[in-house]
Write a structure and sequence with these properties.
The protein has 895 residues and is α+β, with helices and mostly antiparallel strands. It has 15 helices and 39 strands. Strand 37 and strand 38 form a beta hairpin.
């Protein structure tokens, strides 16, 4: 307990044989005068002064001040002067005369000026001086450095009869924390405690003063953290121990006794008739009974602090189904037993439910809407007369209304349902809810509509439209590399235009798709503030954090497709901050080589048109099949059709040769049974083909992020038309759909469905083997080797087919930062001319992969573990039966 007092003391010394005793007298100065008032902090009136004792004549004894003997000054004040200040100082009698804080720090707060005898400057002791001392007291106490403070004034009689004042600021400092630890907290990591204390602004900094209120706050935080883990009977006792090395240095230890962990063996609902226990249990997020997967989900631990959240969800579920008077009572814990080791206490959680009646909708009206007519609002709410009332339908209607108002600049729009039940019980419940109280239970026999029908509730939607707002300024912050024009051309908001909240969401999605910045989050990175000094304008600020899209890459790696490879290149998706794509890539490996240069401009001629070019030379070895060498280039042109939908036209010219053909392909029996195989392998065309093709494609893409997607969809339709200027004629249509759905904040689902077909034009040469369709590999069906799935020769070599189906499903889990765990299931099938797709012929793979972003490669790096349950008849690239389990390294993503 901190103690403070301000006592203005005149201490004279009385000589008693063998004993020096200080006698305390208050007030002013000379012996024989009446005592003045004392100043005692924290008291309404000063205490009664002690008996006054005559002062000792000068020179008859020693005077101690601040623990040391005081002698006369080098020179005396003028005879006949009034009292003067002789000496003043900071004293620490209760801590051995040693301070933790430098004494000069305290002297900074002391405004009383001492005399300077050597120069003949004497500070008078008068009413103004006493006021200064009083103010010094308040300043010192206000530092919060001290546990105890008093000011003692002692008379020192000079030899010429003048009285000198010795002013001692007696201080006892507060204890300082040098060590903070937690003993007995087995289920709380200290790092987690420190993080929580930081969130609650309750951190105890080392070398800071002991603050009892802060210690109590820390104790409460630790107890709350233990309670969240089910330790309802935990105790936390702070203990302070002095440390060697200096005064007032302590070790603050929080002694934790966790006690038994309270676990729920069973949740029992009492009073529910219309809704079953299973449905109610599913609404509870935190307090559920133990089940066989509790060690993963964490369910089964009682969390008292989160019970209110569970109760609200149950009430919300009832209101979604028409029970507007439903309520949930306080929980009751029924003790069952303790575990043999006393570490777990099993309880039954009993939850009282009052359902009330289920209400149907009567009149459904609107009030307060002036901008949008009721006729336009009504279709947004999927409730009509005689429907069961549903809070969920009201919420969805309000969301649609908010979008409608927001698109017109009314971003402050709010609304709420005003329920007016026609029966007494419902009216009482609605009145209590309006007053912010818990719903009252209905009577034992609730009043219902006549003829036994369900009671009716009239619904009035109270709309608060607010003002219409316009945009004053749009500001970009943090785009240190990317130019403002690159970002602004993705915006669908304009300065001086209406503040359209839906256009803002649309703009954020477009910017995130660029992947130049870390994904923008609405509440964190998008700041909308009303413009000062104007009535209906806002300033919109987008806060960016650049991602490195310029990569100079070099190194080596391994993957199923490339084998061992070395790579050197430069790749950027934001060349010089202009949003252009430029790349030079040199890659040589044991199975693949790729030399390529490319450039793409997304806004050609400052219009929303895409133009691009690339030239390449590639070599790909399909193990135990053939080696494909290609040289060529591509031209691409694209333009937008509508929101997130673009049309592309690609022209490709490629000269390809096939070498190192596996002798099993050229076996006479194999060639005899496959009349087009020799032509397909280019054996009769000097091992070369020239393919010139035009590829129109249509792409609709709303996927939120190209590297780590969570939501959105992508549809692609394309057709390869080969024959113009080449010696190979074919057409190859392809349709693909990709869907992402966010499940929780850290998880999402991803799906892909793809269908391809290829056929040569009448009279054309046979399709080359490298154009025929095959599946397998990390980009189609994981766990199988490249081009291992498809129609085969009698010797087991894959020739490829003319049609394929492919399905992929992923469950993506964000682990930490750029790391994801991906659970997948792949299925696919390839068939040839005249063959139908058969369910039993689908080849499947399932497993998991760890996917994390590699800045060097600027793509996700993947570690894939796969199990292939349907693998009959499939040979790997070594022409051995496909193994059930496989482990792969790869880069990129499957879709």
């Amino acid at each position: 307990m901190r103690k403070c007092c301000f006592v203005l003391l005149l201490a004279t010394l009385v000589l008693i044989p063998g004993v020096w005793r200080p006698a305390l007298a208050v007030a002013a100065a000379q012996p024989g005068t009446a005592p003045g008032p004392s100043l005692q902090a924290g008291q309404a009136k000063p205490p009664a002064p002690p008996p006054q004792v005559p002062s000792q004549p000068a020179g008859t004894g020693r005077i101690l001040w601040c623990g040391r003997e005081i002698g006369p000054p080098s020179s005396l004040p003028p005879s006949g002067s009034g009292p003067v200040v002789y000496l003043l100082g900071a004293c620490f009698p209760d801590q051995g005369g040693v301070s933790v804080i430098e004494p000069e720090t305290y002297l900074y707060y002391i405004q009383l000026k001492p005399s300077r005898p050597s120069t003949g400057q004497w500070t008078a002791w008068n009413e103004q001086t006493e006021k200064t001392v009083f103010d010094d007291f308040k300043r010192l106490w206000g530092t919060n450095f001290l546990d105890n403070l008093s000011i003692e004034v002692t008379d020192y009689p000079f030899s010429n009869g003048v009285t000198g004042k010795l002013v001692a600021y007696n201080m006892e400092e507060r204890q300082r924390v040098k060590i903070v630890d937690y003993e007995g907290a087995k289920h709380l990591e200290q790092t987690k405690i420190d993080e929580k204390l930081k969130e609650e602004n309750a951190s105890i900094r080392l070398d800071s003063f002991i603050d009892p209120s802060l210690v109590r706050k820390v104790k409460k935080v630790v107890l709350d953290m233990l309670a969240e883990k089910g330790y309802q009977f935990a105790t936390v006792n702070p203990e302070i121990k002095p440390l060697p090395g200096g005064p007032k240095l302590v070790n603050l230890t929080f002694k934790v006794d966790e006690g038994p962990q309270v676990k729920i063996r069973q949740v029992q609902f009492v009073g529910n008739k219309a809704v079953g226990n299973f449905a109610l249990t599913r609404q509870m997020k935190n307090n559920r009974g133990k089940w066989f997967l509790s060690f993963i989900t964490g369910h089964g631990t009682y969390q008292e602090a989160k019970y209110e959240e569970d109760a609200d969800k149950i009430v919300g579920y009832y209101r979604d189904h028409g029970y507007i008077a439903a309520r949930v009572g306080d929980p009751e814990l029924k003790y069952i037993e303790d575990s043999p080791n006393r570490r777990t206490r099993w309880v039954q959680l009993r939850i009282p439910i009052t359902e009330g009646e289920r209400y149907r909708v009567g009149n459904f009206t609107f009030d307060g809407n002036k901008v949008v007519k009721s006729e336009s609002l009504r279709p947004m709410f999927k409730l009509k007369a005689n429907d069961w009332y549903s809070d969920k339908a009201v919420r969805k209607g309000l969301e649609k209304s908010r979008e409608a108002y927001g698109s017109g600049g009314y971003f402050e729009f709010t609304g709420y349902p005003d329920l007016q039940p026609r029966d007494e019980a419902g009216a009482a419940a609605a009145k209590a809810a309006e007053a912010g109280q818990k719903p009252v239970p209905p009577p034992v026999k609730p009043v219902v509509a006549s003829h036994g029908k369900a009671p009716i509730v009239d619904v009035t939607m109270r709309m608060q439209e607010g003002k219409q707002y316009f945009i004053n300024r749009i500001v970009f912050v943090g785009n240190t590399t990317t130019r403002d024009t690159v970002v602004r051309r993705e915006m669908r908001l304009f300065e001086e235009g209406v503040f359209n909240t839906e256009a803002l969401k649309y703009s954020i999605k477009r910017i995130n798709q660029l992947a130049y910045f870390k994904p923008l989050e609405g509440g964190k990175d998008v700041d909308v503030q009303k413009t000062p000094g104007t009535d209906n304008k806002v300033d919109v600020t987008l806060k960016f954090e650049e991602q490195n899209r310029n990569q100079l890459t070099f190194g080596a790696g391994v993957s199923q497709f490339e084998g061992f490879f070395g790579q050197l290149g430069f790749q950027t998706a934001n060349f010089m901050g202009r949003g252009e794509t430029f790349g030079v890539n040199l890659q040589a490996g044991s199975r693949a080589q790729n030399y390529q240069i490319s450039f793409s401009e997304p806004y050609l001629f400052d219009r929303a048109m895409t133009g691009g070019i690339d030239v390449f030379r590639r070599r790909i070895e399909y193990i135990n099949q053939f080696t494909q060498k290609s040289t060529g280039g591509n031209l691409v042109f694209g333009f937008p059709l509508k929101d997130f939908t673009r049309m592309f036209i690609n022209y490709s010219y490629e000269h390809t040769t096939v070498t190192d053909v596996n002798p099993l392909y050229t076996d006479p029996l194999v060639l005899a049974s496959n009349p087009y195989l020799a032509d397909s392998l280019l054996l009769g065309a000097n091992g070369a083909r020239t393919i010139s093709k035009v590829v129109p494609s249509l792409v609709h893409n709303t996927v939120d992020n190209p590297i780590f997607p969570t939501t959105g969809r992508r549809y692609t339709l394309s057709i390869d038309l080969a024959g113009l200027g080449g010696d190979t004629n074919f057409y190859k249509p392809m349709a693909e759909g990709v869907w992402y759905f966010q499940h929780t904040k850290r998880t999402s689902f991803g799906f892909r469905a793809q269908a391809e077909y290829i056929s040569q034009f009448s009279g054309s040469k046979a399709l080359p083997v490298f154009e025929k369709l095959a599946l397998g590999g990390e980009y189609s069906i994981r766990g199988f080797d490249i081009r291992s799935i498809g129609p085969k020769t009698e010797t087991g070599l894959v020739l490829g087919g003319n049609k394929s189906l492919l399905f992929n499903a992923e469950y993506l889990i964000s682990i930490a930062g750029p790391v994801r765990l991906v659970l997948f299931y792949d299925a696919g099938q390839v068939r040839d001319d005249g063959e139908k797709f058969l369910l039993k012929e689908f080849k499947t793979s399932t497993g998991a992969e760890v996917r994390f972003f590699m800045p060097v490669l600027n793509v996700p790096f993947r570690l894939i573990f796969a199990y292939d349950p349907q693998r009959d008849g499939i040979l790997d690239n070594s022409l051995q039966p496909q193994k059930a389990f496989s482990f792969r390294f790869a880069v990129g993503s499957t879709f």
